[in-house]
Amino acid sequence: MPKAFSENEKETIRAQMREKGRKLFEQQGLRKTSVDELTEAVGISKGAFYLFYESKEELFMEILEGFEQEIQTAILKFAIHPNAEARRNVREMLKSFLLKWDAYPLLKNFNKTDFDYLVRKIPAERALQHARSDEEFSAQLIKKIKREGIAVKASPRTIGNLIKSLFFLSLHRDDLGQPAYEESMNILIDLVAGYIVGA
Hints:
By secondary structure, this protein is mostly helical. Helices cover about 75% and strands about 0% of the residues. It has ten helices and no strands.
């Protein structure tokens, strides 16, 4: 039976799990990384791992959501150009978000197969919680855009779904090839920005 950890030890181990886990997931991918490798990297037993996470997929989600919160915070602080047209401002905001997302090493080799695997492995309530978080971000994004004096013509749900569709395109980067992916993403970002502001 795994030993009991103090609160301080729990915080330290959880931070190490996120750091070491991120590196292993980046190098090997989600499916090829085992719980044994994760526990060995941190220096805890396999039994102790399950005191912190129900599965490696839950750890992956926690790492991914931590990064997602970082980019969401960055996009909500994005500086609007006061003299630029509304569509351009929203387009540049979305592009900055997606460039950061695309550059994240954890997602470099994360494709549609990995996404489907992750969705199958995490509990339905966990997926629902993530969806609610996405909707909250969409609502905050709309508030930010409106505060900047830009009229928004789409609902929070629609905007959230459109942003998700841009993410889903990134899962097909390998299918499209990098040049076609970048071209398609730029066109879609512009179309989504136009739809949001009703241009």
